[in-house]
Write a structure and sequence with these properties.
Low-confidence stretches: none
Shape: globular
Distance between the termini: 38 Å
Number of helices: 14
Helix content: over 70%
Mean pLDDT: 90
Number of domains: 3
Oligomer: single chain
Largest sheet: none
Order of helices and strands: HHHHHHHHHHHHHH
Number of strands: 0
C-alpha cells in the first residue's frame, strides 16, 4: 500500500469511530467535515473546486424557473470543461509542469453532472445545501467511487442506523477488498504474471496476453477498492450502489457493460447515450458517443478515443446479431458449450482492443 492509501484507510477508520460517538443528527455533518479536512490537507485545489462546484450546482437548483435551464446547461458545460482540461493537461502536459492533485475529480464531476441533469429534467427530489454537501463530501466514495446517485443517498441518510450485522459485513468486505487489491492484483497479476509476460510485449500475440492480464488486474484492483468503499459505507450505515456484478460471467458485450463499472456505464447510458439517441435517432452514433465518453473519463487521448469506437463497434455488432435472431445457431448448443463460446468471444473482443489500437498507433496507420 502507498502512503496515500495508508492515510486514507486510517482517516476512514477514525471517521467511522468518531461518527458513531456523535448524536444521530450530527453524524452526516461529521462525515462531510472529515472529508473536507482530508481532501483539503492532501489536495487543496481539489477541495476548493469540489466546494465551488457544489455551490454552483445548488445555485442552479435554486435559480428561478425562467433561467434554470440555461444556468443548469452552463454549469454542466463548465464542470465538463474543467474535467476535460485537467485530463488533457495530465495526458499531454510537459514533464516540467507541476499540476495540482485533484483527488476524486472523475467521480465528483460525474456526480455533479448527474444532479444537474436531473434538475434540468425536473426529476430531482427536494434538495437543500446541507444534504447536497453531505452527498458530495462522502469520504468512502471520494477516491475510487462508485458514482452513486443523489436520491438513493438521501434515502440512505434517512434510513441509516447502528446495525451490528452491517458493521461486521462492512469489515468483512473491506478485508476481502484489500485481499483482492494486494494479493491478487498487485502481487499475483501485476508483479508475478507481469514479470513473465513483459518480454512478450514486442509481439502482437504477446500484447494480447498482456491485455488479458491487464483486464484481470483492473478487475481485481478496481473491484477491490470498490469493496473497500462499500464496506466503509456499510459501517457508516449507508448501502451504496454496487459497481460490479460478476463481469467475467458476461455472455456478450452488452451484458458485460451492464456488469462492469455499473455506475459509470449507467451514467453514460442516462446522460450521453439517451440524449444523443433522441437527437440523432441513430443507435450507433449514440453508442459511440457513450463509449467515447467512457473512454475519455479514463484519459483524454487518441488511444481512448479509438478505444471507445472499438467497443462501440463491438456493442453494435452484438446488437445486430441479436436482431438477426442468432444466425449462427448458438442457442441450439448445450448450455455449457454455448456459455463457453459466448464468454470466450466476449473476453477475446475485450482483450483485443489494446493490442490492435497500440499496433495501429505504433505503425502510424492512424
Amino acid at each position: 500500500m502507498t502512503d496515500f492509501e495508508i492515510i486514507h484507510f486510517l482517516w476512514l477508520v477514525a471517521t467511522c469511530g468518531l461518527t458513531w460517538l456523535l448524536p444521530a443528527r450530527w453524524q452526516t455533518d461529521l462525515i462531510a467535515a472529515s472529508t473536507l479536512c482530508f481532501i483539503g490537507l492532501l489536495a487543496p485545489w481539489s477541495a476548493l473546486w469540489l466546494l465551488g462546484a457544489s455551490l454552483l450546482v445548488y445555485a442552479s437548483y435554486r435559480a428561478p424557473l425562467g433561467i434554470r435551464p440555461r444556468m443548469t446547461g452552463a454549469s454542466v458545460l463548465l464542470i465538463a470543461t474543467v474535467f476535460l482540461v485537467y485530463q488533457g493537461i495530465e495526458a499531454y502536459g510537459q514533464a516540467s509542469w507541476t499540476i495540482p492533485a485533484m483527488i476524486g475529480l472523475s467521480y465528483y464531476s460525474c456526480r455533479h453532472i448527474h444532479v444537474l441533469m436531473e434538475i434540468y429534467k425536473g426529476n430531482l427530489p427536494s434538495m437543500n445545501l446541507r444534504s447536497y454537501l453531505h452527498y458530495q463530501f462522502f469520504l468512502p466514495t471520494l477516491v475510487a467511487g462508485p458514482i452513486h446517485r443523489y436520491p438513493n443517498f438521501i434515502r440512505q441518510c434517512e434510513r441509516r442506523r447502528w446495525d451490528r450485522a452491517q458493521l461486521t459485513g462492512g469489515m468483512e468486505r473491506i478485508l476481502y477488498g484489500y485481499a483482492k487489491v494486494i494479493i491478487i492484483g498487485n502481487y499475483l497479476l501485476d508483479l508475478e504474471l507481469g514479470r513473465i509476460l513483459s518480454p512478450l510485449a514486442e509481439h502482437f500475440a504477446g500484447l494480447w496476453l498482456i491485455s488479458a492480464k491487464d483486464w484481470l488486474y483492473l478487475y481485481a484492483v478496481f473491484s477491490g477498492y470498490t469493496d473497500v468503499a462499500l464496506g466503509f459505507s456499510l459501517i457508516l450505515g449507508f448501502r451504496i450502489e454496487e459497481n460490479f456484478n460478476a463481469p467475467l460471467k458476461a455472455i456478450n458485450l452488452i451484458d458485460f457493460w451492464q456488469r462492469w463499472h455499473i455506475t459509470l456505464s449507467s451514467w453514460c447510458r442516462d446522460y450521453v447515450f439517451r440524449p444523443v439517441q433522441a437527437i440523432t435517432r441513430n443507435q450507433f452514433i449514440a453508442v459511440s458517443a457513450a463509449m467515447i465518453a467512457l473512454g475519455i473519463w479514463h484519459q483524454l487521448s487518441l488511444y481512448y478515443l479509438l478505444w471507445g469506437l472499438y467497443h462501440a463497434l463491438g456493442i453494435t455488432l452484438c446488437r445486430l446479431y441479436q436482431l438477426h435472431n442468432d444466425p449462427l445457431g448458438l442457442r441450439r448448443l448445450p448450455p455449457l458449450l454455448r456459455h463457453g463460446v459466448t464468454r470466450s468471444a466476449t473476453f477475446t473482443w475485450l482483450t483485443g482492443g489494446m493490442p490492435l489500437i497500440t499496433t495501429l498507433l505504433a505503425t502510424g496507420t492512424i
